[in-house]
Write a structure and sequence with these properties.
This protein has 307 residues and is an alpha+beta fold. It is 40% helix and 14% strand. It folds into 2 domains: 92 residues, Phosphorylase Kinase, domain 1, CATH 3.30.200; 195 residues, Aminoglycoside phosphotransferase (APH), C-terminal lobe (Aminoglycoside 3'-phosphotransferase, Chain: A, domain 2). The strands form 3 sheets. The protein has a 5-stranded antiparallel beta sheet with strand order 1-2-3-5-4, with helices on both faces. α4 runs antiparallel to α5 and α8 runs antiparallel to α9.
């Protein structure tokens, strides 16, 4: 009986073993164990020592499988850092209803402040990666849509959600300042040619080894369009001089940075509104991002009074 796309479904090592044994028997003898930080959108498992299995956790993420298998092999040779290499695409089976992937394992730990030896060098390497990604021919690439939750498209798609979050947070943050940042982002509309973007440049998708940036993973929200969404890392991970290095290295204008602040603010606002009473740790992280974005907007406004 088909599983409803919204139903909660147990994605565990046992399921992965059955899927592998049935569809890729050459790997059936390899051990399967969960990756320590397997993510929410997808569940990830080690397959032996050199591969991972990645399964969408919901129908909303399922379209990303075919996209990655199509585009990652084309992007990889043109980029300065390793990205995931798809090895095989699995089919629905064993009660699991979506396609899934086997990838080559990439060494490294997720990026956190304490794992980065030189934040400025890290920021420069990340900027160079994004510049190379933007230079890849975007012809035929996937535009903004449901497959990537509208990354690369106009921020107006999240206007209602953002304003509801602002209303819910009234009196708990500086909602007047946050609203000004959001409206500035909406006003800074994009008119450029579509370019490739990652869509979720966050610490959990940036791998470091020996203190240096070594790989970029999870291209599920990638696509072609406005690259402003890739700037959110400036306020969620980078800070101070490393943020300045990142900003200086990238070729973006003030309007793109304004939209980047909008992307970061949207996510932080809805996260804070949802976690402010139930998850103090998550709320604190979101609040810090909001404060960084508001302060950055104020600095931009002081440099350019019309910003």
């Amino acid at each position: 009986m088909p599983m409803d796309s919204t139903a909660v479904f147990e994605i565990d090592a046992s399921l992965v073993r059955r899927l592998i044994a049935k569809q890729f028997p050459q790997w059936a003898g390899l051990p399967v164990r969960p990756v320590r930080f397997g993510g929410h959108d997808n569940r990830t498992f080690h397959l032996g020592d050199r591969m991972t299995v990645r399964l969408p956790s919901h129908a909303a993420y399922s379209a990303q499988v075919e996209k990655e298998h199509r585009w990652l092999p084309k992007l990889a040779p043109l980029l300065p850092l390793p990205i995931p290499t798809p090895l095989a695409m699995g089919e629905p089976a064993e009660g699991y209803r979506w396609r899934w992937s086997v990838y080559r394992w990439l060494e490294g730990e997720t990026a956190e402040q304490g794992r980065i030896d030189d934040p400025k060098q890290f920021a420069l390497a990340l900027a160079e990666f994004l510049i190379a990604l933007m230079k890849v021919d975007a012809t035929g690439g996937p535009p903004a849509g449901a497959h990537n939750f509208h990354r690369g498209g106009p921020l107006t798609v999240y206007d209602g959600e953002t304003r509801r979050a602002l209303a819910a947070l009234n009196g708990r943050i500086d909602t007047d300042a946050a609203r000004a940042v959001w409206e500035s982002a909406l006003d800074a509309s994009w008119h450029g040619e579509p370019v490739w973007f990652h869509g979720d440049v966050a610490g959990g998708n940036l791998l470091v080894k020996d203190g240096r940036l070594t790989a970029i993973i999870d291209f599920g929200t990638s696509g072609v369009g406005d690259p402003a969404c890739d700037l959110t890392v400036a306020w969620t991970l980078l800070e101070g001089k490393s943020r300045d290095v990142f900003r200086t290295a990238l070729p973006h204008d003030d309007a793109t940075w304004a939209r980047g602040r909008g992307w970061a603010l949207w996510k932080a606002l809805i996260t804070l509104a949802g976690h402010i009473d139930a998850n103090p740790a998550g709320a604190a992280k979101a609040r810090k991002v909001i404060e960084e974005v508001l302060a950055d907007h104020e600095r931009a406004a002081s440099r350019h009074p019309s910003a």
